[in-house]
């Protein structure tokens, strides 16, 4: 691998940026207002630019590089598969696809034993919703405010954050409800148990007024990620499972971000002892080395499509290079105890350090999380819990978070920042030394946020 100092070449970086600006149209961006950082290389928990700056990646890119960058076993598996068979249509039986499906089925909870592969998370959500609608013969889908499910048609409509707004008009059949989140409770609850009971009662009322016979599915992120890493109270997911069973509603858990080690378990659902009917995954299944996602399907829903065709497919469903990288990733995670590492680092290093940091910084209102999946909720005032920046702030209104992010970067830390939150989501392979290095940089950078309290 090229080291950061060996690759320091500002002129090459400038050329990469100029080429990008000429023809690349970027996600979620006003094209004329962005300044993408040219990247020269990456390894493990780090990536670096052409100016010789190395960043400790506390965002895991988009919370997907669970095994870090350039894992040698995964790189080798992709190379070997490329030499053997680069592509084949989804209708054929191929060793590497079957093995990827077997390994996913083995790790997912309960009887989620049939795997439909997609190219990413949004397509997984689209297909899970379609399966639920066809299985039940019903149309409506309930999803939570404070959620993210992807940027394709149904997935963005299901999403409960402002990125939904410009695409909201096609949201026929999508109903939003409030999930549990004690720190900013929609139910004026005072403790986790109240929050849980009231959130379940609210969901039941929503179902009663929408008409249970019209509802195909409830979709939830097991631990909502992008919206703030809100670990649900004990009993909530089991309560939703029971409600779904009572009304014949399909329960979809979206584990695109929370799955494959992120929470210190293979799936976040494992912490809560709940098995959904459909489970969507992507990101950590192969750390994003080749685009891959999918839906793990229960025996009952799979049976719906046993004698009747499933009306959905993708040219690259179960792509050999993606499946080879997934097999190598899942095997490496088991061999190298990567899920266990995520659990241990979270419990013994990151969690305690974040609580200690929160006690010293007036801008840190709450610490939430598990494994390598943590959020700091930044506030103007710890008493009132007023967010450090207004909801969906941009431009000047977002200056405090922009200053905080800049302080992280000048300290060699690449943060994940969304609204008034920063998330601590390093690779599941992060070492104790790396975690401590990043936490020290975070601690420093928070003084920039404190200045706005
Ligand atoms: N669901 C969840 C929970 C996610 O976090 C994401 C991506 N952040 C998606 C779905 C969409 O995945 P993708 O970007 O791969 O389409």
Automatic annotation (TrEMBL):
InterPro entries with a match to the protein in the record: Aminotrans_3, Aminotrans_3_PPA_site, PyrdxlP-dep_Trfase, PyrdxlP-dep_Trfase_major, PyrdxlP-dep_Trfase_small
PANTHER family documented for this protein: AMINOTRANSFERASE, AMINOTRANSFERASE CLASS-III
CDD domains recorded: OAT_like (cd00610)
GO molecular function annotations of the record: transaminase activity
The keyword Magnesium belongs to this UniProt entry's keyword annotation: no
Family: Belongs to the class-III pyridoxal-phosphate-dependent aminotransferase family.
Protein name: Aspartate aminotransferase family protein
Matches recorded under PROSITE patterns: AA_TRANSFER_CLASS_3 (PS00600)
Keywords per UniProt: Aminotransferase, Pyridoxal phosphate, Transferase
Phylogenetic lineage: Bacteria, Bacillati, Actinomycetota, Actinomycetes, Kitasatosporales
Listed SUPFAM superfamilies: PLP-dependent transferases
